[in-house]
Amino acid sequence: MGETTNDSGGPGGDSDRRIGRRALLIGGAAAAVGTAVLARDELGRLWWRTPGVEKPRKEGEVDFRGADWVAASSANWRRADRPDDFGIDRVIIHVTQGSFRSAVKVFQDPGHGAAAHYIVGQDGRITQMIRELDVAFHAGNRDFNERSVGIEHEGFVDRPEDFTDAMYEASARLTARICARYDIPVDREHIIGHVEVPGTDHTDPGPHWDWKRYIPLVREAAERAASPTPTAGPTRTAGA
């Protein structure tokens, strides 16, 4: 938890100089275009910081149907407009190293300096504490914070019994929905553990998190969500 706040001319010199000047002009034009693109992107990222500008939001709105909303302290995340300002291409799996209730409490503490978007309980309940469009301070790496959604899981890394069937299944449904929303591939390159974030000193989700089970569960959940709901057939009368 927490963000690391992370000419000389050779033979035929005249000809060479003319080529050099042309290259310089072309290079300068390309650099100007690149600078303009960067400036535009930066303005896109900063638009919401302009006084009086606010992306429309509904209090208590969640991004995953079925999740409960409990707001994290505003000191533990920053307002953004993802994926328009920062593309989302990762889901990061965490373990709370404590109870569900304690995780909620610390994410509400402005002095904690960190929070994830979601917490998944051992009983399968899901609480959202930060909107996906905002940047949560969860990865300990600014770039990864900006490009990811963080999911905490109730338990301890050294207790495999904490990772229940209900937790795996609920988390898989949540991750599948996030991947579908942002077109994130369901694989281990894009669904990673906190320990895999560059520069972090965290070890979660630890050796007992069953990736060989989890990724197939996410794929299954994604396939179910993508399948059309069967329509009911004609009503049959008794004796027909």
UniProtKB/TrEMBL annotation:
- Name any Gene Ontology BP term: cell wall organization
Superkingdom of the source species = Bacteria
The UniProt entry, under InterPro entries, shows: Amidase/PGRP_sf (IPR036505), Amidase_domain (IPR002502), NAMLAA_amidase_2 (IPR051206)
Q: Which GO terms describe its molecular function?
A: N-acetylmuramoyl-L-alanine amidase activity
Give the record's keywords alphabetically. Answer: Cell wall biogenesis/degradation, Hydrolase
Its EC number(s): 3.5.1.28
Q: Which reaction does it catalyse?
A: Hydrolyzes the link between N-acetylmuramoyl residues and L-amino acid residues in certain cell-wall glycopeptides
**Mind telling me which Pfam families this protein's record contains?**
Amidase_2
Q: Tell me the CDD domains matching this sequence.
A: PGRP
What are the N-acetylmuramoyl-L-alanine amidase domain coordinates in residue numbering?
77-206
Gene3D superfamilies linked to this entry:
Peptidoglycan recognition protein-like
Protein name per the record: N-acetylmuramoyl-L-alanine amidase
Species name: Streptomyces apricus
